[in-house]
Design brief:
Elements (H helix, E strand, L loop, with lengths): L2 E7 L6 E3 L5 H11 L6 H8 L5 H7 L6 H17 E3 L3 H10 L3 E6 L6 H7 L5 E4 H4 L6 H11 L10 E7 L2 H10 L3 E4 L11 H14 L12 H10 L7
Parallel strand pairs: 1-4, 1-6, 4-5, 6-7
Antiparallel strand pairs: 2-3
Helix pairs in contact: 1-4, 5-10, 9-11
Protein name: HAD superfamily hydrolase (TIGR01549 family)
GO molecular function, one term: hydrolase activity
Keywords: Hydrolase
Amino acid sequence: MVKTTGVIFDVFSTLIKINDRRNPYLQLLRYGRKQGLCLSGEHLRMLMTQELGWQEAADLLRIRAGDVVLRGFAGELQKELASMTLFDDAQEAISMLREAGVKIGLCSNSASGYGPTVRELLPNLDAYGFSYELGVLKPDPLIYRTVCQELEVVPGRQLGGERVVMVGDSVKCDRDGARAAGLAGFYLNRTGRGDFSSLTHFAECVLIGYRHGFMRGAIKVPADFEEMGRDHIRRNFEGEP
């Protein structure tokens, strides 16, 4: 019998919604482009894999920006943070899993400005895996495995009767990337075009597997889910940066 011992959630558009999106870090990149700098997704990756203040971020990208401009970006970030709320089903799903004894972690591609507010909205979880703290982005296998280490669970360990499950709104990062790292990854799409359309349904299915064996529940994982995840990543599905 395969038993789910840990669940890892993506954060944005999965547990947390940003109601007033300002994209301040993208604004910083656009500001640099206006100065003639060739800034790309690789530079966004740099911002999301290091803990940086606004001046440090500008210096790293060689963007010339004075205090007034940087305070403007910081203000845009604060407006985003103030607008962040949990999805209606987020807390219920987490509570259902915690009451059953399932360990819960987060895994998020995010810049350092978002971390403290996420921790405030989602306190006392078993593991927090932010890309800016770990120095790596999804779908790199290292980020999933690091979160699993914090949870003290072993991904892909089926003979011992354990399985780690992940869910999120990115096919590339939360389903296929997780599967390639040995987790059972699932795609959340609230319009009904994914594996799950709500977190409560996801939690219910996890708990069915927790009590009765993973494959007897409503969650169906292909026997070769790890190779399927690697194959989809090789095809370069779109997802989080």
